[in-house]
Amino acid sequence: MSATLQNLVNQPYKHGFVTSIESDVAPKGLNADTIRMISAKKKEPEWLLEFRLKSYEAWLKMEEPTWPNVHYPKIDFQEISYYSAPKQKPKLKSMDEVDPELLRTFEKLGVPLHERMALAGVAVDVIFDSVSVATTYKDKLAEVGIIFCSMSEAVQDHPELVQKYLGTVIPSTDNFYAALNSAVFTDGSFCYIPKGVKCPMDLSTYFRINTEESGQFERTLIVAEEGASVSYLEGCTAPAFSSNQLHAAVVELVALDNADIKYSTVQNWYAGDEKGVGGIYNFVTKRGLAKGVNSRISWTQVETGSAITWKYPSCVLLGDNSVGEFYSVAVTNHYQQADTGTKMIHIGKNTRSTIVSKGISAGHSNNSYRGLVKVAPSATGARNYSQCDSMLVGHHSGAHTFPYIQVANNCSQVEHEASTSKIGEDQLFYFAQRGIDAEAAVSMIINGFCKDVFQQLPMEFAVEATALLSFKLEGSVG
Amino acid sequence: MSTSDTVNAGYLESLLAGRPHVPASPLAWLNTLRSEAVDRVGVLTVPTQRDEEWRFTDISQLNRMSFHPVRTTVDLQAEEAGRFRIEEAASRLVFVDGVYAPHLSIIDTDNGVSVVNLEAGLAANAVALESCLGRYAEFRNEVFSALNTAFLQDAALVVVPQDVSVSAPVHLLFIATQKDVASYPRCLLLAGSGSVVTVIEDYVSLQEDAYFTNAVTEIVLAENARVNHIRVQREGMKAVHIANGAVSLARASNYQSVSVAFGARISRYNLNVRLAEEAECAVDGLALIAGRQLADTHTCIDHAKPHAMSHQLHKCIVGGGAHAVFNGKIMVRQGAQRTDSRQSSRNLLLTNKAHVDTKPQLEIFADDVKCTHGATIGQLDSEEVFYLQSRGLSETVARNMLTYAFGAEIIERIPVPSLKSLLEQTVLDQTTVQP
């Protein structure tokens, strides 16, 4: 049985192809001039250039972090090109104007843009490498006063909002990769939900790294004003390249009084081949600030791709009664490495947080959960519940948990639970008895294992994630 | 980095300064071991909070304290040591400030167990000790272990021959009597195959000033051996207590340990347990601290081979402005299939200045294993308090009772009745808040 199953798990990356669109690529290397060049190309205001240069200064003084439980050859930051934009006429009003080749790419990825628009009512802000090509449903959103555009547009059209919030949740000196991103970010999404507005549809962005050797540095900023609510979806795929690509994104969320932000990610970037050659380095800093009272920030992630994943979507629960949530499924196979988890920083009174993390490791991969629950002395009545379960598939994989729990007052409750399990022969036998083959059985078991997280995903994503997981792991058990 | 959070570079040299007093041994390997350790002390530095293993434990206060090795031994009267007597113990070795005190020790030779100071042990069987002493407690990368090994002279040596089973516990008593003294207690326990023994490692103080205890304990279990290890740390309230324990379990051996920490201003206990096939261990701990105390327990249970089992329950009761740290690592190596491991960290915070950092950590490289861990930090359950109140108890009494019960769960696992009741009384006294 195991041989057939092994074949299934070793399916090649089906999204591996390169779209040949001419790219406007900056020369390799990073210095203050590169940053000035990026800033000038994007016609940015003076304050943003200063922000970038300051971040660059800070970055120069920082050292690459070595504490994550991941191993990779040292990255030469001077070997990366920091800017690449498809040579396209920007500002497209309708889908018909989009380069047909680009559309075909998304078709292959299984992201039928128009279908999505029509059926799901999802506005997709398409990011192709670093420049926004098409933004849909913008008018409909504009009606209720929601600003949903690319970061470059936001800088041009709403500089006051960007200036007010950019870097407030993740200061440019936060960590090595956040500083690098702050210095060189090219584009990303910006979303602003005004006071009292409930966003009428799920907002979504598809990222795709295209040009070989070009690191991508997105910057996403979502602000929900008092009483506003939004659900944001992010999905990723990347073509198969043999040399490693660096991806260091920064995502900042700000929720004011009674606001609610839900951020969902499905990440399926190229993970390298079965020998561990190539693949994306995904070093992401994501943090939400629950600034106002009764605000809520919820992260849901399904991490299946990337050679190395290194991300900790965090919640800073500053407002009283604010809520932080983290639901994660991380799947690693072959030689993939994932070090992911969350940080819940309780500062306000009666703040609550929930962490549900499911890690599945197969092949020679290593999957680590690293989390921090910190309850400050001021966070009276804080409550946390964490659960992190691991599933190991095969004899060569590793699962690790590093939960840090720090409590500094006596009226908080913190609970942490973890378990490790495997798919047992007896379980498979039970399925076989009922006429379900191993392949379908494994898929069912895995989906059952991840159910708590998938339930949190928006409908379309849940379907995609289920398929993705089955495709990634089917058959690695036997 | 500011000098406030680091320990001065010269600090280790100052601790080593008294080492010339350690007389050379006639045994070349022992001298080599010591000098190797001295070399390592020269290379290593005192850990700071920037080291992951010491992240929550601030020992920068060492800067403000200076310690020297014991210069003159105190001639302790039998009755002074007598107050720490444990009635069940047939043999007792007493070390005053780390120095062996033969006149206070009682050695029972009838039951077949050899309980002696290192010197006598070396005279009897140096060859057997060469392969054990200093071979289990890692000192090449652990500066405090290295310091202890550098000063290695007197040590409690317990050797249980094959198939010998002793019911009376062995009491190893370490008494601190002098201010500003750094003492280096050392224990080595060799349990032969099929043997059964209970050992009590007991750290006490006769004075309340600052001193430094840097202990190392090595326990080696041969096949099918069974060791009960009770570790009681009731040092003076200004003491610094740093201890390293290394336990090696051969096939199908069983190690049961209860470690209790009440004393010391700063205490740190590193325990490494390595399990072979079918070995079992239960590693339980209780830290009961208040005031400005800091109690840190770091354990690493290494499932190196398949079919081993480990259970761990660690509890902290933290009052005043005290700070408790727990880091429990469970390592399941590749091929260590059918491992069964359970770990639980329970913490009770009594005041709003108390502080707990806990990190139950799992590292698993085998797929057919059962590993769970859990951690909770909280207060007494209000429903439990209410239940007792509904039975006519006052709130204070109800809280005292529940706090006591929380700690007593660990104490109850101690298989020595007199020590158990003594420690239960200590827990009761410390957790009782007067109405």
TrEMBL record, chain A:
It comes from the Bacteria. Residues 207-449 form the SUF system FeS cluster assembly SufBD core domain. Transmembrane segments: none annotated. Residues 129-199 form the SUF system FeS cluster assembly SufBD N-terminal domain. One of its GO terms (biological process) is iron-sulfur cluster assembly. Belongs to the iron-sulfur cluster assembly SufBD family. This is Fe-S cluster scaffold complex subunit SufB. It comes from Candidatus Nitrotoga fabula.
TrEMBL record, chain B:
Pfam families: SUFBD_core, SufBD_N. This is Iron-sulfur cluster assembly protein SufD. InterPro entries: Fe-S_cluster_assembly_SufBD (IPR055346), SUF_FeS_clus_asmbl_SufBD_core (IPR000825), SUF_FeS_clus_asmbl_SufBD_sf (IPR037284), SUF_FeS_clus_asmbl_SufD (IPR011542), SufBD_N (IPR045595). Belongs to the iron-sulfur cluster assembly SufBD family. PANTHER family: PROTEIN ABCI7, CHLOROPLASTIC. One of its GO terms (biological process) is iron-sulfur cluster assembly. Residues 24-171 form the SUF system FeS cluster assembly SufBD N-terminal domain. Residues 174-406 form the SUF system FeS cluster assembly SufBD core domain. It comes from the Bacteria.
